[in-house]
Amino acid sequence: MGKITGFLDYARQEAADRPPLERVKDWLPFHSALPESLRREQGGRCMDCGVPFCQSGIQWEGSAFGCPLHNLIPEWNDMIYAGNPSHALSRLLKTNNFPEFTGRVCPAPCERACICGVWGDAVTIRDNELSVIEGAFAAGTVRRRRPPQWSGKKVAVVGSGPAGLAAADQLNHRGHSVTVIEREQRPGGLLTYGIPNMKLPKEIVKRRIDLMIDEGVSFVTGVDAADRQVAARLLRDYDAVILCCGAERPRPLGLETEGIAGVCFGTEFLKAAVERQHFGLTPDLPTAEGRDVVIVGTGDTASDCVATALRQGCRSVVQLVRRPEEDYLQNGALPRDYAHQEAAAVLGADPRRFGVQLKELTAEGGALTAVTTTDGDTLPCSLLIAATGFAGCAGGVCEAFGVEYDRTVRTAEGSFAAGVEKVFAAGDMRRGQSLVVWAIAEGRSAAAEVDAYLNGCTNLVRAL
User: How far apart are the first and last CA of the chain?
Assistant: First the structure.
């Protein structure tokens, strides 16, 4: 522990965000970085607890506390304070394949478990993590790591989201020949298509994928493993297959929307925005420009839809939240995330309405014009976005590989084996809708089981 009284000497200091009225005009990252001297102080606030709950990774009463990857947080915080970035990097990469992702998009359950936060403010763990990995990339100390020899075993990973990438990275470093199969035209899954650029720049995702390619992982895009012929070929040509296709089946609104233009799911809206803004495509789904937008749901997807609609130039945006406002209060106040700050700055009010649901839709000539809520009022609406979560994994891939599923792929307790010889599953497809950090933990754990299946033993450590 570099600074015994650091948690007393230094106050929590977060990096400043760009002003909301400025950042809504572009798609650039809005979170800045602290100077090195201040970042070292933030590392020095870590108490090096006797029992560091920040790295425990447990679930209690429906909430997650601590890091599911069991990141060695006190160790690399100590190294940040000591000014030893190379050692901080080595400890960070020991448990986390992609800290540049989690350092940007993780809601930081580690900070909710920080002992320093019991009587004060938690350590800035997520920002400290991001500073370590981005400092290493900037300094050129993140280098290609190829295995000393290859095992001769071939593994196919279906899906290139965080779980699939983590499994591929782990198995590649164990010397297996890994091919990642992706249905979309670009790899990255949720990281590429489901998270807006201002939160996770696409060049950051590409940077990691390029590094994985340099280390030996192969990516094949534009191939849908729900095709039974594709599935049969993968089963024939590979020694193991890991299904990491996410929880992509959205939960329906519960209202009749057939034939009404202007209704979509949150993931569809975000994907179309990424394709249009960053890849130069022209999706069928319209933008929010000049429209009255109503978003149903809460959580990260709903917030990202609010922020995206503002950047596209919507006329108004309202977010309907089913649960009452009291459920979201923290110390008597209603916290705002980045999207709600932006909406308040642009439109003059928090866009959220609590304790209300949709009752019916109004359309003219097949186009949505308004929605009626359970409060009895009618809101103008020409774009309705359902960000109400996910009902489970899509069945096409499961059926093509012959694995049993309901909401998720069925696996034995504590196992990632999918009940079909040499087929495994990981990530949201096995776990259900969750966080990027949990998906990475799933991918790492599935990789350990697959490695043991192929080799008869493994030295990979399971996070779960």
Answer: 28
CB proximity list for 324: less than 8 A, separation 6 or greater: 354, 355
**Which DSSP symbol is given to 25?**
T
Residue 252 has pLDDT above 90, yes or no: no
Tell me which residue has tokens 């995330």.
337
Q: What is the pLDDT of residue 48?
A: 79
Q: What is the pLDDT of residues 366-379, one digit of tens each?
A: 999 999 999 999 99
| CA dist., res. 358 & res. 388, Å (int) | 12
Contact 80, 92 (CB under 8 A): no
Instruction: Report d(CA 144, CA 204) in Å as an integer.
Output: 16
> For residue 303, what are the contacts with CB-CB under 8 A and spacing of at least 6?
337, 338, 339, 340
For the stretch 57-65, contacts whose Cβ atoms lie closer than 8 Å and that sit 24 or more positions apart, written own/partner, are 57/441, 57/463, 63/109, 63/112, 64/109, 64/435, 64/438, 65/109, 65/112, 65/113
Looking at per-residue confidence, does 253 or 191 come out higher? 191
DSSP 462: P
Distance of CA 342 to the CA centre of its chain: 21
By percentage, how much of the chain surpasses pLDDT 70? 100
CA distances from 55 to 64, 74, 162, 167, 168 (A): 11, 9, 20, 21, 24
Is the pLDDT confidence value at 269 over 70? Answer: yes
265, β-bridge pairs: 386
